[in-house]
Amino acid sequence: MDKMDLKLDNFKKDCKKQMEIICEGLQHQKTEITAIEQSLSDMDSRLQADENNTECLLKQSSFLQSKVDDIENWSCRNNIRIFGFPDNIEGNNLPNFLTTWLQEVLDLPEALSYGIERAHRSLASSKTSKNNSTKSIEDSPDVRAARKVANFIGSEHHEVTFTPEKGISCLDEVIRTLETYDITTVRASVGMYLVSRYIRKTTDSVVIFSGEGSDELTQGYIYFHKAPSPLEAAEESERLLKELYMFDVLRADRTTAAHGLELRVPFLDHRFTTYYLSLPPEHRVPKNGIEKFLLRAAFQDSKLLPEEILWRPKEAFSDGITSVKKSWFALLQEYVDSQVNNSDLERAEEKFPFNTPSTKDAYYYRQIFEKHFPGRADWLSHYWMPKWIKATDPSARTLSHYKTEDDKNGAEKVHLDRC
């Protein structure tokens, strides 16, 4: 009996110990459950706060959007569109914008063709006593214009002259560098290629400025005078800007990069292009027989450029480097006439079914291109040609304001170049 009692007592002790262990476990689980419940409660509080914050942010966003809409409605009523100008732009007018913009693109040398866009760029460069370079054949309009501006603003000016023979001799190299056979691009690239080589060999300059994009953006080509309406002129301007990579920007980039130079094109600064394209179409068209009228007018009272340079008519890039008596395109055509037979041109469509050349110089450039890049003619979707006129060639020297007095008395010619 004593043994049975002893076993019973031990069993009771074991059961009690197990119960204590179970109770301790249950208490620990209860504590964990309480902690989890507290965490869930905290999460609910934070979610509620986030929902309140989100609702608040949505209300603020809606309020700000309404203010933006109010500004846009006001700007539309007043023919003004606002696109994130630099903080230091005061007022919504082109002169203020251009003045600030020019201040931000100083401190680099200037080079290449001498139109109104380059005159503005030279003005900026002169403030830091940088160099200006102009390429030309003797007695060219660009040289005379560049000398006037250099004297007026007191900049150090360099002139790079070359003979027609020297220009013709580098055609093969230029076309290989460009990877295109577009007529006006090839013509204009010769001078730019030669002046870039001069800068690389004779100066320490590596980064240079040029005026690409100005004609496309500010409607500088002569054929814009023939635009049927301001809206169609604006659409053409945007088309030209979108195609710059095939023409002027291709030329500027390849001819300078071929000599290790880095080109900057301030007229394609995104702030300036955004601002200019936001202006009403009727403000951007040529006026009073003057292309780029708005850009010129912005500097009318500044006395920063000679008056005759500010209002100088558009000069075609490849033509401004040569004498008015004989244009660069005419010199090229004379040379090519002895290199391409009439029979070759007559069979041009058989040899070149895509972008078939219609002139001897176009045929000659295409032959050189195919030698370096056979079967790659589709790199160029179309030739650069002016609109709204009957043009068979892209050269502008046949327009009235390029003619000599004898020419003006003669019959009017019909083809225009890069006008």
Textual characterization of the structure:
With 419 residues, the protein is mainly alpha-helical. Among the domains are: 48-78; 95-325, Rossmann fold (3-Layer(aba) Sandwich). It has 19 helices and four strands. The chain has helices at residues 2-77, 94-103, 116-126, 141-153, 164-169, 171-178, 183-202, 214-218, 230-242, 248-257, 270-278, 281-284, 293-297, 307-310, 328-337, 342-346, 348-351, 360-372, 405-409; strands spanning 131-136, 156-161, 207-209, 262-264. Helix 6 (171-178) crosses helix 18 and helix 7 runs parallel beside helix 10. The model is unreliable at 77-91, 118-129 and 398-419 (pLDDT under 50).
In short:
The chain has 419 residues and is mainly alpha-helical. Helix content is 55%, strand content 4%.
Provide keyphrases for this structure:
419 residues, mainly alpha, Rossmann fold, two-stranded parallel sheet, 19 helices, 55% helix, disordered C terminus
**What Rg, in angstroms, do the CA atoms define?**
36 Å
Identify the CATH architecture of one domain. Answer: 3-Layer(aba) Sandwich
CATH superfamily of one domain: HUPs
Side-by-side strand order of the widest sheet = 1-2
Structure annotation, total helices: 19
Distance between the termini: 128 Å
What is the CATH C-level name of one domain? Alpha Beta
Order of SSEs = HHHEHEHHHEHHHEHHHHHHHHH
Question: What is the tally of beta strands?
Answer: 4
The rough form would be described as: elongated
SS class: mainly alpha
Helices and strands, with pairings:
Elements (H helix, E strand, L loop, with lengths): L1 H76 L16 H10 L12 H11 L4 E6 L4 H13 L2 E6 L2 H6 L1 H8 L4 H20 L4 E3 L4 H5 L11 H13 L5 H10 L4 E3 L5 H9 L2 H4 L8 H5 L9 H4 L17 H10 L4 H5 L1 H4 L8 H13 L32 H5 L10
Parallel strand pairs: 1-2, 3-4
